[in-house]
Write a structure and sequence with these properties.
This protein is α/β, with parallel strands linked by helices. The chain has a 9-stranded mixed sheet. Strands 1, 2, 3, 4, 5, 6 and 7 form a 7-stranded mixed sheet that branches.
Length: 383
């Protein structure tokens, strides 16, 4: 068995997602396991170079992770022909320019979503990559969540019958930054920096709905700026002018209706930070990040509406948990491994820049729906 090197330029690893999920729990974990195993038994060993403006901070991260190479200039890193992949998990506002430069430098692309702030930019990246003959990948981590994997298994088995509707609840309270530090970077709440929960979360809901239920055909979205003043990382108050909540309804193929609320200004009283309920003619299921509960038609109770008496029916106890019949690794790591196999041995791959453009499309139409206060059809995209 042979091991081949794969040089990866990693930008944006000082941020929460870039550091925790992509560097530590994905690339470092893959390296510690001896690389990605191919179908013939050979292995691919990622050899990352960490890039960031603050070289000292990047060097400290590299040392802690046992990585030798660092740089403070993306353009210089792109000139190295020994590194064939460019990864970005930086701020949304920078992504289009960075990915464009990387594609023009002949690098394969792997990036966080959204891939751009506007649909024309996202489609431009997909066309640029196609014309350049480079491969691309966009993170679609929610599909790898154990809870949603169980939902998919139920769907594939025919458990739901005809799916009628989907109800999703996502979010938690992000502290304002005054008396408790915020859990998210301040740029998330500034329009000028590519912030806003519609642009951040509707791309997620696009690939979740498209892949698990049915393609999105229309959207009605209402956004809100619930908290208009926040305190940034330096302790300075700023105007938070980007939407921190979105209340969206989608029509899917087959007439399925999906309603998903997304908020950074909500306190959690549910089983998880995100939950999806799928209701069908034969059964229903509710999934969170890891767990999933189901209720079949034959086990559906008959509640009685009586506002004069306290409710005694134990609704929570009337659902059965879908068992953990397989071991689930970190979803970001799983997708990294799949992308690397696609690069090296040409395994099938769907999650490319064009799929990423669909997410940007839905976010753009969601914002348009909010502005114009109407339902908007989602046209099919093409390159």
């Amino acid at each position: 068995m042979a091991t081949q090197r794969l040089g990866i330029i990693m930008h944006g690893i000082t941020g929460r997602m870039g550091y925790n999920q992509h560097l530590v729990r994905s690339i470092c974990a893959i390296r510690a396991a001896g690389g990605v195993q191919l179908s013939n038994g050979d292995r691919v060993m990622p050899d990352p170079i960490l890039v960031g403006r603050n070289r000292e901070k990047v060097a400290a991260i590299a040392k802690a992770c046992g990585i030798e190479r660092v740089a403070d200039n993306v353009e210089n890193a792109l000139r190295n022909s020994d590194d064939s992949v460019f990864f970005d998990a930086g701020s949304t506002a920078m992504r289009f320019d960075l990915l464009s430069k990387a594609i023009k430098a002949g690098k394969h692309i792997y990036a966080e979503k959204p891939v751009a702030e506007r649909l024309d930019q996202a489609l431009g990246l997909a066309r640029l990559a196609k014309d350049a003959g480079v491969k691309s990948g966009v993170v679609q981590d929610k599909l790898y969540l154990p809870g949603l994997q169980k939902l998919k298994m139920l769907r594939d088995s025919g458990f739901f019958g005809r799916i009628l509707s989907v109800r999703g609840e996502f979010g938690y309270w992000v502290f304002e930054g005054d008396w408790q530090a915020a859990q998210r970077p301040s740029w998330n709440y500034r329009k000028a920096d590519g912030g806003g929960i519609i642009l951040d979360m509707l791309p997620h809901w696009r690939y979740v709905l498209d892949n698990l239920v049915g393609e999105v055909r229309s959207v009605s979205c209402m956004g809100a700026v619930h908290i208009s003043k926040r305190v940034d990382e330096r302790g300075k108050e700023y105007a938070a002018d980007a939407d921190d909540a979105a209340y969206a309804t989608f029509e899917l193929e087959g007439g399925v209706i999906a309603q998903i609320n997304s908020s950074w200004a909500v306190r959690v009283k549910r089983d998880d930070l995100v939950t999806f309920q799928v209701d069908g003619t034969l059964g229903s299921a509710v999934a969170g990040l890891t767990r999933c509960y189901s209720q079949h038609r034959v086990n559906t109770p008959r509640p009685v509406w009586n506002p004069d008496q306290p409710q005694t029916m134990p609704f929570q106890d009337q659902w059965q948990e879908v068992p953990d019949n397989k071991v689930n690794e970190n979803g970001f790591k799983q997708q990294w491994e799949e992308f690397i196999r696609h690069l090296v041995e040409g395994t099938p791959w769907k999650r490319d820049l064009f799929e990423g453009a669909k997410g940007v499309q839905l976010a753009e139409l969601g914002q348009k729906s909010w502005t114009e206060r109407r339902v908007i059809d989602v046209p099919q995209l093409s390159l």
